Amino acid sequence: MNQLDDILNCSICLDRYKEPKILPCHHSFCAACINRLKINGSVTCPNCRLVHDASKNFVTDFRTNQLLDLNNQELTQNRENFRLVQPSAPLANEFNENLLNHNRRQENSKKEKKKNYGAIFIIIIIVLIAIIFLIVFIPYLKKSTIYFCNASQFWDGSKCVDKSHYKEYCKASFECNDMKSLLCINNSCKN
């Protein structure tokens, strides 16, 4: 609370004064709050603890009433000025525009990060698929290589089928993964 609130608020109900009355000790309270303090025809001031005769009518606190009126007029005038100034204030509009642009940039950067994460995720998936392919199919590709015997022109998936050939004589001269497209003539392959 600021100092003006301390002056304009009742110290009992802590609200703005409603019909402020002043006790003989010069402390002010709402009329309703003073009536609640009456016990056996007397009122004890909550601030200074002086006991006052409640049979007398307490005087209206005109000074506090004037301050309340001035404060209400000032608040009303400030509200009207704010309404008049706000739409035509270029600084406020520029601030709002800058704030909106900042929020849009943040949203766009979040979307770009999500796109980047998506691209990275796709690259990781492709690399994993390539690794799985290499692990699973490389042994199969090695086994399916076709060897040809120079002497007999017989072929097998891994060795010469002619049992009479010796290892040193029967050496593979061609390798191809597609037997149908290979025609071996005079130690050369043609498609």
UniProtKB/TrEMBL annotation:
Keyword terms, alphabetized: Membrane, Metal-binding, Transmembrane, Transmembrane helix, Zinc, Zinc-finger
SUPFAM superfamilies reported for this sequence: RING/U-box
Domain of life: Eukaryota
PANTHER family on file: BONUS, ISOFORM C-RELATED, MEIOTIC P26, ISOFORM F
Record-linked Pfam families: zf-C3HC4
GO molecular function: ubiquitin protein ligase activity; zinc ion binding
Protein name in UniProt: RING-type domain-containing protein
Source organism of the structure: Brachionus calyciflorus
Transmembrane regions listed in the UniProt entry: 117-141
Record-annotated RING-type domain positions: 10-49
Family matches, as InterPro entries: TRIM45/56/19-like, Znf_C3HC4_RING-type, Znf_RING, Znf_RING/FYVE/PHD, Znf_RING_CS
